[in-house]
Amino acid sequence: MTRDGGAGAPGPAARGVADSEMVDLDRAADIPLGYTRTRKRMARPMPSHSSLGSGREPPPVAGQARRKMSSSWLPMQHREDVLNNERKSSGPLGAERAVGARSARALSEVQGPTATRAPHEREGSLSRMRSPVMDKPYPSGRAMSSSSRVLWSSHADAPSDTYTHDRIALWREQSAREVHSNEPRRPMVSYKDAAPRTDTGAESPLRLMLRYLAHEELNCSMYLLGWLMAVLLRCAVALGSWSGRRTPPMYGDFEAQRHWMELALHLPVRRWYRYDLLYWGLDYPPLTAWVSYACARLATLFPVLQPALALRSSRGSETPEMVLFMRLSVLILDVLVYMPAVAWFVLRRLEARSTRVRHMALWTVWCQPALILVDHGHFQYNAVMLGLAALSFTLLLTKQPNVHTAADAPADLQRLLLDTLSRHVSLQYVAAAVFFSLSLCFKQMSLYYAPAIFAIMLGRCVGLARTDMVRGAALFAGLACATTAVFALLWLPWLGQVSELGQVLHRIFPLARGLFEDKVANVWCALSVLPVGARWKLPNLLGVATLAKLSLATVLLAILPCCILLFVASVETVRRESIADDAHADQVVANLRRRAGSVVSGTTRRTAGGAPSLHESSRGSDRRSLRSGSALAGSTSSRLPESARHTRRTSATVPPAAELLPYTLASTSLAFYLWGFQTHEKSVLLPLLPLTLLLTVQGDRTGAGAAAADWEWGVFANNVGVFSLWPLLQRDGQFLAWGVLLVLWNYLIGYRPWETLRAVRAPAGASVRAAMQAAMLSLLALQATVPLVPALWAPVLRRYPDLFPVLTVLLCMPALFLVWLWTLSKHMQIALASGLLSVRQKHK
């Protein structure tokens, strides 16, 4: 039996060498992605031969195709030896020519006579495939076939352009041959031989899911599918138990919310904060009371719910109809307030990124487990407070105005455009003040964000006043009037008498309750659970008033550095808004880099028109959208003369204030949680909100890897925060939902903390984060042994009934403290990169 398929077919040796080239090509097709697991890349068969040329030949018979393929699948080591020997014997030039000849013969076998071309024609076609602008020695992934998606690494000993394209031609030839032979493709490289991958986010299940949706042309449905998935998770958690279920006499938070609906419905407004204070007296600001009143009014429309809201006789009511109504009220408010607010923030912050990155970030934020477990499991309405705060953050996340007018445009027109855009930004600040005031009036815990909001708003007022005193005073007056109007409208029934107002403030800030409530993972609780004598416990060592003052002083010291930097960044942002022309912008960039040194981050994007502009520099993005600028970033009115129209796209530059804002919000809220007075374990949701809004995708290389570090720390903080809620949710019967949702969220986003340690250069803090999470898992495993060996644990738990909650506090507090230190380091990095510290020194 002959092994040749025909007179024109290459011999076994030639086919073996060609197949060895295919092995090299398939190895190069494995994108290096670092410490993540490697997937075998199964190449898809080519649906058509349009990329192989116009000439075709009839498919060979099945037996002939099998004879051809049997000789091609030689052992891998033998194919590599054949290729190495041929390269050694002929040298680099000879190897290149040999590969070119083999590829020509292989193409002629499939495509027919039209595939054979002269060497100079073939070289010309290969040279035309190179990029005319970048002139890279290797082709990009987009220039190649969509089925290969090969990214080439730039090693010093990489083959030439001709050699690379020859290998691509061989790969396409083999794909076409398998299509003709109707045989399934065999894997060219085994799992063990595949190169390690470095882009850890490329293989997360969430990325694979979105890639599949994009392949099926369902991009328009990604937002809807993400929304449905988030709602489904909330409904699944809501099917479980809740706080205080069937535990009289006080029940729990579910009964507290129902009781507030009851009293708001039946009592006059001035008695809301004085009615039955020993049984879940109202202790949240007035907007919570108004929302409870609205929910109670809606419930009266259903006769079956009226007995569950009767005054005094309905205490402890847990009828299925009332439970369903209250669960739906939380879900509807979450869908109407929180989910759109965080979606707007994510899409506005990542508007210059690719569509897939925005989708992944949005799905990650929507499915955050902490808020779902507390609101839809434990039962509260924190989504309203966090959603209103997120709306405020979004309005403060402005872009740098960018005005590029024609050369003959007058300077007065440029100044007019900049002033108009700057006034639009100031109007957004006023709207942000309104939403943040609403958040404060819903729950007083929004004060965790107040120092950062105050710093950025005051900085803008001062920055405007330095150039125009009238504009600075006008913005300050607008912010003050907006805040006062919101508070006056919601607090109006209690403003008539000082005693009534004092009663509301006394209920909102209960200093008499003590330093902290329950086992919360902050510094004061960790110090209180240390094994020391009762004499040295903080409540006994210092009085309540002294502890309150100590807590206030500690919080102020912790938030002062980051708030000062945000204030300086806001002042500097206003100064940069006044830059009208490119010459001035270039001078500013030069001065900043000279003062800040090589630490300045961000790559300046040059345009075809000339020198780089300050407004066009950014910290990097994987893809720049044509619509990257915000709505206020310099849109040109059609009524302007043609000479004044913009000649370049709008700016994608994030000003220093907007870049620092999320980190400052995380730092201040963590400081309040760690050192604040009267902190509850559910307060961990406040620092988790800005940390979650910073998440994009795993392995994100934007900003020289800064986004990847933010992702690692943000997911770590979420895991620690959810773990700190474990004792609370375990008492509520939410342990199963807690474990499943936490594992599912980490699996979907692709978080594998221990695999980072296998990387050649592990990220900063990776070992500490992995060790802390391993300790948390060990604590869970230890507690799981309690029902297995009750005789061993019974005497220990009788003496230390709060053993596991105390261990949880001692584990989570240092982890959150470490996250707070990371936020401070991010402030220093951004300040140095933006030139804020040098600007501050210059102003001094």
TrEMBL record:
Pathway: Protein modification; protein glycosylation. It is an enzyme of class 2 (transferase). Keywords: Endoplasmic reticulum, Glycosyltransferase, Membrane, Transferase, Transmembrane, Transmembrane helix. Residues 77-89, 616-625 have a biased composition (Basic and acidic residues). Residues 1-140, 600-653 are annotated as: Disordered. Residues 10-19, 627-640 have a biased composition (Low complexity). GO terms for molecular function: dolichyl pyrophosphate Man9GlcNAc2 alpha-1,3-glucosyltransferase activity. Pfam families: Alg6_Alg8. PANTHER family: DOLICHYL GLYCOSYLTRANSFERASE, DOLICHYL PYROPHOSPHATE MAN9GLCNAC2 ALPHA-1,3-GLUCOSYLTRANSFERASE. Signal peptide: none annotated. The lineage of its organism: Eukaryota, Fungi, Dikarya, Basidiomycota, Ustilaginomycotina. This is Alpha-1,3-glucosyltransferase. GO terms for cellular component: endoplasmic reticulum membrane. The chain crosses the membrane at residues 323-347, 425-442, 448-465, 472-492, 547-569, 657-676, 735-754, 775-797, 803-824. Belongs to the ALG6/ALG8 glucosyltransferase family.
